[in-house]
Structure to design on (148 residues):
């Protein structure tokens, strides 16, 4: 199995880097998105992460010269779906389980596939302006994770 982060401190570094807007843009990967979400969810309720994450990502994008537009940058539906999936995945583990191991397990699961959301949303619906700006429910099958 691929190891994405060797320690919980490495996971925390990702989250802190996004919050402080100092994480180098090449490190903001699919795994890093989930690492940051899991780190936030470890100590905060789902609703708080759902409320905070959009602003964190938008600010991080702006700090790394990624415009938040109708075609790029922040995507609300993907963000909420990912937070919900990360929260459910985290719930499978004891609170003391190493977070870096949870990231590795998540990335080895179907959630680790970059196109995992296409099981629930058609490409046209998921990448619509409406889905980028706000929550748009899936059109292929019910989404099994809480989103707020």
């Amino acid at each position: 199995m691929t190891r994405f982060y060797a320690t919980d401190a490495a996971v925390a570094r990702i989250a802190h880097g996004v919050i402080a807007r100092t994480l180098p843009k090449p490190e903001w990967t699919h795994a890093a998105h989930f690492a940051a979400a899991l780190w936030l969810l470890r100590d905060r309720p789902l609703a708080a992460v759902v409320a905070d994450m959009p602003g964190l990502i938008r600010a991080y994008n702006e700090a790394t010269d990624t415009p938040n537009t109708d075609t790029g940058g922040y995507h609300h539906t993907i963000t909420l779906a990912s937070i919900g999936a990360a929260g459910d995945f985290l719930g499978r583990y004891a609170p003391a389980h190493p977070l870096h191991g949870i990231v590795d397990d998540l990335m080895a699961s179907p959630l680790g596939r970059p196109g995992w959301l296409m099981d629930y949303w058609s490409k046209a619906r998921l990448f619509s302006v409406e889905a980028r700006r706000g929550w748009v429910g899936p059109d292929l099958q019910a989404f099994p994770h809480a989103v707020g």
User: Anything to note?
Assistant: The longest helix spans residues 46-63. Helices lie at 8-20, 30-43, 46-63, 76-90, 99-108, 123-126, 129-133.
